[in-house]
Amino acid sequence: MKVFRDLFRRMGISALWYVGVFAAVIVVLRVVFKAEEMDVAVTLTSISNISGRIYMIMLGIACPLVYFPRYIAVGVTRKRFALGIFASGALLSLCFFAALRIPLLAWGGGLSLLAVLIPALYGALAFLIGWTASVGFQYTRGAPILVGIVCACAILAGVAALERLGLRSWPSLSIAVCAIGLVGLPLLRAVMGIPVRC
């Protein structure tokens, strides 16, 4: 629990900076482009969704690489670290996408629980995709690095292909939950196998 709280705080601080910068960009866009309010709200919601996922992928790449050695050095097990960073990434995604999307959806008139929850789940999946791409680097061998990058690219392509189908909310929600499980469990096993220097 302590690992989760500490990682969530660290990752949350950087996310707050991102949300602040994004809010400033929204204000500038609103002032510069004087379009109809509904069009602006829809456009900004799409931009927040895409940029939020890219941000979560970057967090998934950077945070495990930066924090894993630090936590292992102070006696945290690989399993506790993996569970802590996964939980903090998932909760951060929920808070992060809620902070970005709730005002925009309320502004555009499309606010609902699923409209906030589904992007948050896909944001958590984006975090796992980034983590998948970076986990091989912790093995410091060519084959795991290549496998991690290929798997991350394949998952990302699969998610993009599913989204192009334009599924309704409930199937999309089910796919996101299943994908998180299917990516998260092998990732946990991969983290458990990372060699640790004694």
Describe it for me?
It is a single chain. The protein is mostly helical. Helix content is 85%, strand content 0%. Helix 1 (2-32) packs antiparallel against helix 2 (37-73) and helix 3 (78-108) packs antiparallel against helix 4 (113-135). The chain is globular.
Features:
198 residues; mainly alpha; 6 helices
How does the helix and strand content classify structurally? mainly alpha
Note the beta-strand portion: under 5%
* Silhouette: globular
Mean pLDDT over the residues = 85
Strand count: 0
Question: What multimeric state do the chains show?
Answer: single chain
End-to-end gap:
24 Å
| N-to-C series of helices and strands | HHHHHH
Helix content: over 70%
How does the SSE layout of this entry go?
Elements: H1 2-32, H2 37-73, H3 78-108, H4 113-135, H5 142-164, H6 169-192
Structure summary:
The chain contains six helices and no strands. The chain is mostly helical.
